[in-house]
Amino acid sequence: MTALSFGPYFSFLERRDAAGAVAHALALVDGGADPVDVLLDVVGRAQEQVGLRWAAGSWTVAHEHAATAISESVALAVGARIAAPTDPLGHVILTCAEREWHGLPARLVGYCLQAAGWRTTFLGASMPARQFARFLDDVDADAVAISCSVAASLPAARRLIDAAREAGLPVLVGGGAFGPDDTRARALGASGWAKDARAAASVLDGLVARGDLHSAATDRARHAGADEHAEMVVRFAEFRATARRSWLESPHSGPQDPASQGPASHDGGLFDDAIDHALHALSAALLTDDPRLLREASDWLTALFAARGEPAGAIPGLWLALHRTVGEPLPEAARHLKSL
Amino acid sequence: MTSDLGFVGRAPDSLDDAAMLAVAQRRAQFLADASRTVSGSLNLPHTVRRSLTACVPHLADWAQIMLIGRDGASYTSLVVNKTGTSSAARRHPDADGVDGQSRLLVTGRPELLHVSLEQDPLEPDGLLALVPDERMREQVAALRPADVLGLPLTARGTTFGTLTLARRTGFGFVAEDISIAEELAVRIALALDAARRYAERAGVATVLQASLRPPELPKLEGSALAARYRAASADAEIGGDFYDAWGSPDDWSFVLGDVSGKGVEAAVVTGQARHTVRGASAVDRDPAAVLRALNTMLDGTASGRYVTAVYGRVRRQPCGALHVKVASAGHPPPLAVRASGSVEPVAVRGLAAGLVPEVEYTPAEVTLSPGDTLVLYTDGVTEARHHSVRDGTRRLTELLSQYAQVGVDALVEAIEIAVLEGSDGTQRDDLAVLALRAAAS
Lengths: 340, 441
Description:
The complex is a heterodimer.
Chain A: H1 7-14, H2 18-30, H3 35-55, H4 61-79, E1 91-95, H5 104-115, E2 119-122, H6 129-138, E3 143-147, H7 154-166, E4 171-174, H8 183-187, E5 192-193, H9 197-210, H10 224-234, H11 236-248, H12 269-288, H13 292-307, H14 314-326, H15 331-338
Parallel strand pairs in A: 1-2, 1-3, 3-4, 4-5
Helix pairs in contact in A: 1-2, 1-3, 2-4, 3-4, 3-5, 4-5, 5-9, 6-7, 10-12, 11-12, 11-14, 12-13, 12-15, 13-14, 14-15
Chain B: H1 17-39, H2 44-55, E1 62-69, E2 72-81, E3 84-91, H3 96-100, H4 102-107, E4 111-115, H5 127-130, H6 134-141, E5 146-155, E6 158-168, H7 175-212, E7 223-230, E8 241-248, E9 251-259, H8 263-283, H9 287-299, E10 307-316, E11 322-329, E12 335-337, E13 343-345, E14 364-368, E15 373-377, H10 379-382, H11 389-402, H12 408-421, E16 431-438
Antiparallel strand pairs in B: 1-2, 1-6, 2-3, 4-5, 5-6, 7-16, 8-9, 9-10, 10-11, 11-14, 12-13, 12-15, 15-16
């Protein structure tokens, strides 16, 4: 069979044509395509394009959101074509940590696992840890899968992982925020890491077959970075305010003041979002002891600012401002920022 | 297969201090790990399986847990063999197995049994009493000659089940093994007892909670509806905000409101308010009459709580427009979001319900052309973080203007995200949003 193209599907998202998108995706399945392929190679790939359109500034947040909502309903329709296993391998709970609003990737992984023979329950985006722990007491589950697309959700993901491991359930993690290898997954105490949705089923099978269900203490992060991460959580608002002032008022490294005219003036939220993004990346880097998170955040922000016509020096200036803000109280953070 | 050194109770090879200490440490570590293993969850079937995992393979080659329930005894077993572990579970609807174990249940003392090679594998003396299930008995028979140890599961003065362990012969249960097994049985019994009691309570709580949570929205031809609800207390998932929608596609009603206070106490009043509004609207759907009824109901209760709410009656015009007649009891005004992106508050006021005995409400009217949306929300949306209400309303208006042409599901989700992201991760107030749109023809 020829590879599926996401182009035609994407044009439905461009036009915000929900009915057309659903009909198109179902027609592919009716034409003999594997529903999992349609979900990953058409819907998933098109959603990557949606993210790029937003980053490039050619789509508004609302347009991105509308397209994602359409893809959610398409995923439900196509997923309904995947039979629920009569004799499941087990029951896996899929969820996203707080601050993670991208629920679609977890939903798609859920359908992959269902196709591989698992019974699945999807809890949705931004799940508080207490509610999650209660849910685990109420249902008889065999495994948990957590998806993180944004680094800001990694600290909250650790709470979910702790809750699941304490209950003796193996935890599979994945998603863009975990990076290219299992470093962050291990640092957060997960039992396994999958590099993409298709790998999830085999990794999960391995975890359960290993029978490694002894809940033994998840190795709590005890390195210096973990202490500094805790400090950042407590003082987040203070650090944000100080970094903002330091960045926006610096004559050499700051972006144009959002209050003045220029390309920035209509999009003051961009600067606040950039500061939050950088602080969350730093916080996650400390927790996982993986400074590559800063590099990823820097590349992402640089591309975003370039697309929005903001000055190129703004992002290095942002990191300098962060260094000025947290460098003294947080030496580990300072070290990471310096080597950026 | 368990290695010969695997069983945790084994006596040391030599009797020097170091060897004795190593064995003692191993036993202490085993009990500490096993305690964690069995007590991590409050889910009963999960805890049963975890308990068996704690016994096999470190304490025995095979383990079975029998629990006496309301509808008889249930048995679950776990065995380790050449292919790894496997389990069998079966429920006996009649209490046949309990009779066989009555000795154990009555005495509360461990029972040892030897199953020799010569015995009929499926009918060995005594084993039938401890292991009534045929498949499980086969698992034990495969270990012959085997030693079987039966232990009571007792917590808070009641023996509610048994733990049965089996080992291949040559690794029989010596006094130290039995004392470790008894120690472990105590921990397993406590964990299972907690899970059983949780299951009983949770069953009741879940039903009550579900009745206090907002109901699923109806599908109404010609109207698109979407809602979001998040309680501030994440553990209870219920709070003081509520909404509801019901009726036929051509003539239907909605309500959205907020009870003063938070948590379970407020949630109970939301249930009463929701049912009062529904009941009143069955008699007279006029918005002023419905809110008057709500006020009367609250004035008659001693809870001392008041409620702000918006109630509306929606009638579909032949052209596809929705005509909405709406009244407010001290609630933030609904926002009409036009397809063009302009946003205007619906000018409607009234006193919160439950403050004074007699109140008159004056309804307002608004017409939604196809593509127009009416958004109702509670103050948890506009008062998040340190914003003033005015600031919060301005932000909401800006957001809605951008989402005027986006599906109502995405629209209410965008509001939820904006509120939670804007509150630094700690949600201080309940939040409810309801959006209704005249579907484009």
